[in-house]
Amino acid sequence: MLAVILLIWQQQKLAAFFGIVTSPEQINLNNSTQIATPDLGRRHQLTYQEWVEILKQEAKVAADQRPPHLTILAGDSLSLWFPPELLPEGKTWLNQGISGETSNGLLNRLKIFDRTQPEVIFVMIGINDLIRGMSNEEILDNQRQIINYLRKTHPTAQIVVQSILPHGAEEASWKGRDKLLAVANSRIQELNQQLQSISTKKGVKYLDLYPLFTNKQGNLRREFTTDGLHLSPEGYIVWRSALQIYGEIELKSQQEEDGKRLKVKG
């Protein structure tokens, strides 16, 4: 899967360069058929609560309009900055990311999209917890609660927990570089292993993105990041490729199995 995704990255990078990447549907706060593409530039000046209010509005539109194949991105700035034009096609995407978000913050605002009816919910959270000095136990406990809440509130949705990504280590130029360097990538790998185990026990999917983004030293590859923490367009193309392949292989097969069970019960 790793080799295939990297090959697709090369192909899609060329396609994006020549301007032939098409856009998926987005949710719009107006009464259109698309869901709102956020004004990300303006969001730099928003407070956390103002951010939450905007996400509430977008989730309300999704709940009222019930767009087809609704898929939710829940997480921090890595999810937030996912370029809309690079999200996999054939789905309606609702981005519920907030810059600087922690696992506790995400847990406390999951209710925002309670009324939506997503097919899939992708969760990526944890790097800001590590930067802020939280213990692995605290992070994993929040992750368990997030999984439990989503399974209970969205019983028909497929929940996909995504691994925490590595950082650029000594090559990082992010403004919080010192705090970032205090978190070893080996610790992130260990945390991801535990997160995978929890996902398996809870009966949800786990998407291991970590190896797609690492170099030989186990750090975030230079071409996939802007500052050693956040992703470059190339990084998002790799993530997009992983979501595409995962959707076709894992999620589609699961949907088919669920459909067969319903027919047998009927």
From TrEMBL:
It holds the Pfam family Lipase_GDSL_2. InterPro entries: Ester_Hydrolysis_Enzymes, SGNH_hydro, SGNH_hydro_sf. Residues 90-236 form the SGNH hydrolase-type esterase domain. It comes from the Bacteria. GO terms for molecular function: phosphatidylcholine lysophospholipase activity. PANTHER family: SGNH HYDROLASE-TYPE ESTERASE DOMAIN-CONTAINING PROTEIN (PTHR30383:SF5), THIOESTERASE 1/PROTEASE 1/LYSOPHOSPHOLIPASE L1 (PTHR30383). This is Lipolytic enzyme, G-D-S-L family.
